[in-house]
Each structure stands twice: as C-alpha cells, then as structure tokens.
Write the structure tokens for this entry.
Amino acid sequence: MKWADHPWQRAPFETQTFVDHSFGPPEVPFSFSDQSPEPGPEPSEFHTTTHPHPSYLAKADQATCEQMLEGFLDGNNWGVEDARDFTRRLRIDLHREPRYSRQIFERLLARSDPDLTEAIEFLDDPFLNTRGSGNYAAAVEIFVRTKTKRGKRTAVLNAINRALELGLISTDEICLIITALPNIIVEGNKTLGSWDHKALLKHYRAMWKAIGCCNILGYHDLDRSIVDAWLGELLRIRSFRFAEELIIETHDADRHSQWPSALVQVWLESMDVDSETNLPFPDKIFSQLDVDSAADCVIRVTESLASSSTDRVSRNQLLERWRDCLADAEVISTVAKSQVWFDFPLPCVQSQTKHAPLSHSTQRQIILRLWLLRTLGRSTGPMYNQSARATDQPIYSLLNLYQTVIQDTSGTFYPNFMREIHDLDLPYNSLLLLALNKKGKSSITRTTRKTLEQLETSQLSLAEVWTNPSIYKGIQKLFHTTFDEMFHRMDLTSPDTVEEILNVVRSGDSKNIWPILRLLNNNIPFKVSLHKAWQPIPHPDEKVLVRYHPAPRDSRCPDPHAAVDLINQLAVALSCCKHLTPCQSFHMVHWLYGYLRRHGGPVDPEFVRAMYHAGVVRYRRDGRRISATQYEYIRWIVGKFESSEVIEELTALPQIGESRVGRQ
C-alpha cells in the first residue's frame, strides 16, 4: 500500500457531518500531526497568504473540545475513519487523553452492529485505540452482559490476541480480561466458565501464546496480579497442565509463590473425582523449579493437608495419596539439599529464606518435615537398605533441632516425639524407628520394631506396654520418664487400688502378676515410704497428742504402714495363688522379701509365714523335692522374724524333701 493511500493520510471526508462540524475556511489545510502543537506558523507549502489564518481549533479550550466531540458522537452517520479524522481536527491527543478513546469506543459499541465489524476495526486502529483506555476489557464486557454469537466473540478475542502480540494492552487490562472471560454468557444464563471449559481454555491458550510471541511483554514480565488471577481460574477449571506451564514460565526464584503448592493440593483433591488428571506429577514441576521452591512446595502442601479442617478420613486419604506420590518421585536428591528444611521462626535458626509458617508449633513443623523426608527417602530404595541417602543429613539436623526446642535434658525426647505424632494424626511412616536409628541405635530387635510401630499408630499404649515384660524391656529406656510419671501417679495404698491388685494376683498367672511387681519396683514414693514404717502407730490407749505423719496421703506420699501391709497381703496372695507353680510362688515372694530389705521396710511375721508356705508347704503338697539349701535359707529367715515356738512348730516334721504320699 502506498503511503498516500494509507487511511491516516486520506483527504478530509466530504459528508454532511463534516460540513456541520467544520470550524474554518475549507481552503485552510490543517496539520496531520498526532501531537498537540502550540499555535505557530504553518509549513511554507501550506501558506496561502503572508498572514496565516489563526486556527479555530487552537483557540478552543478543553471544554469546547469535549462538547464538540460529544456533538459529533451523538450523530449516527459516522464511522471509524470519520472519528479518526474528527479527533485530528480537534487536535485531541488520544495517547495523552485515553478517556476520549474510551468514549468513542463505547458510543461505537452502543450502535447497532450485528457483526461488530467497526468495533474490531477500532480495536485494530493504533491511533484511536490507545493504551490505557480499557477498550479491550470493555469489548469483553459486551459478552458478559449479553449473549452473542460465537463467531463475533472469537473475532473480538482474536483482535485482543493481536494486540497482545504487539504489547499494546496494559497489565491491568490483561487482568480484567482474564477474570471476565469465564463470565461470558454462552447458553441462557450459563457462563463460559461453568458451561464450556474447553472453549475457555482455548481462549486462555490463545492469549498465552500471543504473550509468548510478544517482544515487549514476555512471560517473566507479567504482573503478579495477572498470574494470580490466571492461575486461580485455571485451578478452578482443573486445567493442571496449563497451570503447571504457567507456574514454571512465570516463576521467580527470588520470591516464594503459593501457587506450586496450591496446584499440587488441588490436584490431590481432584483425585477423589477423577483418578486420572493431566498433571504429570510430581517430577516435572520439581525439576523445573529451583531447589528451594520445590522444597517449599512440598512443605506447604504437607502443612496445609495436616491442618485441614476436613474430616479425619478424607484428610488422611489426602495425606496417604501425597505420601505415595512423593515416594515415586525421582528428583528428590536435590530437594533434600535445600536450606528451606531448617527455616523456622526461631532465634537460634538463621535463614535467608522467608517462610510463612502455618498453624503449627515449631515441634510439629519439625515432625511434619521429618515425615516428608522419611517419605522422600523411600524413593531412593527400600528402607531396610542402610546405605547413605540424600535425606540423612537434614533428618539428623532436624532431630537435633527438635531436641533443642523441647530442651530435652531428662530423657523426654521419645515421649514428647510420640505425643506430637499422635496429635498430628499422620499416616504411619515409622518416625519413632527413624529417630531411634538416627540417634545411634543400629541393632533393633524385631519385637522392638513392632512395638514402636504399634505405639506410633496408637494400637498400643504405654500403659499396656509395661504389662508385657518382653516388649517393656525393649523400650523401657526410651520412655522411662513416662513410665516413671505413670507409676508415680498411682496411689498403691488406696483401698480401691489394693483390692484391684489383690484380685489380679489371686486370679492371674505370672504374666499378669509380674507387671504389678514392676509397678512396685518403679514407684519411687512407695519405695521411699517403706522405711518410715518402722515408726509404730501409737495405740489409742497411749493418748498421744501428736498426729502420726501429718503430711497428706496421696500418690506422692503414701502411708508407710499401708505400704507394708500391701506387701504382706501380696505375699500371702502369691503363696496361695493356684495359677502359679510352687517355684513361681516362692520366687515372687522371695522377690518381695528382697524388695523390702533393699528399701528398709520391716518384715512382719505374716510375711515370713507366707514365704514358708510358698517355699515349703506348697512343695510338699505337690510332691516336689525341696533342696536343702532352700529349706535352710527359709528356716534362717523365719528364725530372724519369728519366735522360737513358731520355728519349732514349723520344723517339727523330720522328713525333708519327701512328699506326703511317701510319708503315708
């Protein structure tokens, strides 16, 4: 096209509208500059006299121009070219006054144009459609207000895409267009976002491609408001592949974005509805983002799922699904090297990366990250393989940090660790076993492994553990503070507790009775009270005015005489228990004897008679042989605490080591 034939260089049109709005002699030409020049001498080739006529347009103030433009737009017999020429005559700089461009376009849209031909022509005109006027967003608003044909909508949106390729649309206007597209009316009262996701995605794809072809505005130049609005719409319509591409292309390593974690979380939630999604999870998004962003993503997702307000079943299903996805990941070795794992709101932890903690305490954040690293470690091979993993170092550091946070100085690490795991209610991931392994214990028995698994999954309580000697022995050192506290809280001298203990001894076997003996051995206040029983209780006839042991009686200060009385009753019950063999009965009574002597408690005659019954009488009744050493030992003990008459009565039988059947 020749320069003289360009629409901008055409001669002024000769129409009735032009005649009505002419402001000077027709023989006086006017400048075609799109600037607003100051009144001055015209170029020499346009001079018709030595004294140029002053331009009437130059004298018109802004109000007059607005009135003239309004009068022109009130007419119906004008088109895009007419509007262009008229604004030139008024010398309105549309680039400096974009509101006039919007005014012209709105009048153009209000006119009856079934094909929107003039509107599209206006949008493609860089002189009339100036940047910042908002005409592109206004064009989309037409489809939001009224239903239009698909062809008209596509033509306007294609014009928008052409402008995007040229970088003519401002970022604010792009954001308005993105949010307006889903609200376009397509069928009845239904919108594009609710009725035709494929068409909406097609329009979004076309816009995205146009921005990618632009040499002025690239993907990394998009404002955060545009990215946020766009990703919000894409996640709403479950376009995971496009959302992933947008996140990767607009990613800024210097800023931590919430969108990677939001994308993964929506993807996990969508699995309840559709087992197959378009998101190639999770390797691509992890490999394309930088290490810190990838680590921040998995941490955010885990913390968000753990603090979800949904019901427990749905929440755990999401966490298990998330765990399975991470276990299949292949690029975790680099993610584990990130310093984001140690980014906590603690004065003792310094980090250059800002991470907004969710509604979890520091201890729980550490446990969640240990749960994550444990899962990520599974992707490198089976857990029974003890070879070094990329996740080992952050796990060591987090365990040490946890110990520092809880100020563990008295062996409270494992009880506190298990309590936080239970409070978080996480799917099983062998965290207790992990802590035990990393804290230096390499050889762990199968029974201990199973016990730790049952404790972590709440299938077993510590109150049940101490009743089983085989499993209690394996973890007693790990949870000794909890066991001690549990034992100390029990008042063994209360009547109800005494009755319950005696019932267990009378009706139970050795497996039921040994936990009671361990309970006695671990109850420090009970052991301390035994030596105080040497002080006799004053007889009422003595009329003693001083109260006996004025301290209140509870689990921390049991009654010494009630404690000794419990030992005596236990000895009697053990010696007569039908579910115990004579050997078992004697062994347990002898254990009680050593217990009394070690802790300075008095041995009453009632106790030694129970020992004699268990070690001598029951042996004879069952026809068992009593060793001479055992018999002499029992006689020696009886002689220490019984009178000579009792000893003679007990030793009257001359046969030793024979059964009653043999004597008969």
In short: The beta strands are 185-187, 190-191.
